[in-house]
Specification:
mainly alpha, extended
Length: 203
């Protein structure tokens, strides 16, 4: 898939708040190749941070943000990117995970190679540490722990607080003050019943 087309699809997908929350740890501004796609990405992030009640960044809001921030003679180029985002959406969540990760890995590797080539072309010492960090970042994309999209800290805070209050917890028994500070102790994991048994033995 052609790089710019893939960028449009990634930007389209990130308009969805759940996708933004899930993939925000691996999709960064520097992965986009043009100043136009970089800037639209920044506007999408800006919208998600400022408006937390919306599940989708409206295209109309992106147009408005561009109109208010970009000079009139340059705004058309940015608006064309927004139109392409609309034209090339990524809506199939069954393949989204693979596409987003593939995009991140490919761009990180491309940046690494281009940095090395630039240094060689200009007879500069290659920054081995920076290249190693980029490669490590690319290799870690598949193992990055992504945020569960079903959970948004700012969504339905009353329900979240109620769930926290009713959460099963196990007292550490180390100190009453410690257990109080930890809101009654450690969270009881359903997958780790051994913790409860150990606590009973200690008591």
């Amino acid at each position: 898939m052609e790089t710019h087309l893939l960028e449009f699809r990634i930007l389209s997908f990130l308009r969805n708040r759940d996708a933004y929350l899930k993939y925000g740890s691996i999709i960064k501004e520097y992965l986009f190749e043009s100043k136009f796609t970089k800037y639209i990405y920044k506007l999408i992030v800006y919208y998600h941070k400022k408006v937390r009640g919306k599940k989708l960044v409206p295209l109309s809001s992106l147009f408005t943000l561009v109109s208010s921030r970009i000079k009139e003679n340059e705004a058309g180029k940015y608006k064309e990117i927004i139109r392409k985002i609309k034209k090339f959406p990524l809506t199939d969540e069954t393949i989204a995970d693979e596409i987003v990760k593939r995009f991140a890995k490919r761009q990180l590797l491309k940046i690494t190679i281009m940095d090395a080539v630039h240094s060689l072309d200009h007879d500069e010492d290659i920054n081995i540490e920076r290249l190693r960090n980029r490669l490590d970042e690319a290799l870690l994309v598949d193992s990055t722990e992504l945020l569960d999209t079903a959970y948004d800290y700012f969504t339905n805070p009353n329900k979240r607080l109620e769930e926290d209050r009713n959460e099963n917890r196990i007292a550490t028994l180390l100190s009453p003050d410690l257990d109080k500070a930890m809101r009654r102790g450690l969270v009881q994991s359903k997958s780790e019943p051994w913790m409860e048994k150990l606590t009973k033995q200690c008591s």
